[in-house]
Amino acid sequence: MAASESRARGDTLAEKAADPILKVTNVEVIYDHVILVLKGVSLTVPQRGVVALLGANGAGKTTTLKAISNLLRAERGEVTKGTIEFCGERVEKLTPNALVNRGCIQVMEGRHCFGHLTVEENLLTGAYTRKDGWGAVKRDMELVYSYFPRLKERRSSQAGYTSGGEQQMTAIGRAMMARPKMILLDEPSMGLAPQLVEEIFEIVKELNAREGVAFLLAEQNTNVALRYATYGYILESGRIVLDGEARALRENEDVKEFYLGIGGEGRRSFREVKHYKRRKRWLA
Question: Phi and psi at residue 254, in whole multiples of 5°?
Fold first, then answer.
């Protein structure tokens, strides 16, 4: 009897571990009570997974992340339909700081460092909600510096006077100081040189592999995002129009043509392709 109960407990734990850390189901978002922005968006992020949310500017990527992190109300937006589950519990009615306490942290588009504070002071703001003592915070600070050695060199510099790449590292490091289970990373490549973009994504890869942090990456840089993610969703006009394993999406002819700029006739500009043609092919 005891052995069977032990096996049952083991099966339950295995099932729980297999559950996605994030599950978004048929979410609809409306701004100002009239503007429909997201239309039935569904996606999942597995435990310790890296998922890319792709699409052109204005497709709804940032709105999706803000719906998950409950930051819509500050912009007169609201989730009017659907459900959002984090670690198996409904969270769409929680306050943003309650969600942070549960381990879901958003790194905003444009980095949003506190420019008048030093790099280290910025990192410490990420630990504001923690109650495990200065010793634990100091250990995590050293952990962040081990991933971002450049920040250790600039720890006393005002964040507003650091480079774009250093500010992005500061923003991710600040999120890590909150001991996240998942980070919502919005446009991490924006305004950065290609070499810095690669460096940022390599660090994301290491944080995922070594620390077990799941990532949902909202990106316009489809080429880079699909090299580091395991799964991807493509948004267009507030709807998911295509999803699949990252490797399969990289080989998909529509993705190659419309997002990677490579088609049967060589490189083509995204702007040369009509919107209705893409939707007709993807939704057929």
Answer: -65, -45
Confidence category of residue 112, pLDDT binned at 50, 70, 90: confident
SS3 for 88-99, per residue? Answer: CEECCCCCHHHH
E strands within 192-257?
Answer: 214-219, 231-236, 239-245
> Tell me: the pLDDT tens digits for 224-267?
999 999 999 999 999 999 999 999 999 988 888 777 666 555 54
Apex 46 CA angle, 113 and 166, nearest 5:
20
Separation CA 193–CA 188 (nearest Å): 11
Q: What domains appear along the chain, each with residue ranges and CATH number? A: 18-251 (3.40.50.300), 252-284 (no CATH)
Q: Which residue has the tokens 């979410």?
A: 27
pLDDT digits (tens, 9 = 90+) for 30-54: 999 999 999 999 999 999 999 999 9
pLDDT of residue 18: 75
Distance CA 124, CA 67 (A): 26
Determine the Cα–Cα distance for residues 154 and 238; give it in Å rounded to an integer. 40
**Helical H segments across 212-236, by residue range:** 222-228
Distance (Å, rounded) from C-alpha 12 to C-alpha 1?
17
Rounded Cα–Cα distance for residues 221 and 94 (Å): 31
- Is the model's pLDDT at 5 over the cut of 90? no
Strands 214-219 and 182-186, bridge-based pairing: parallel
How is residue 126 written in tokens?
A: 């990420």
pTM for this prediction:
0.85
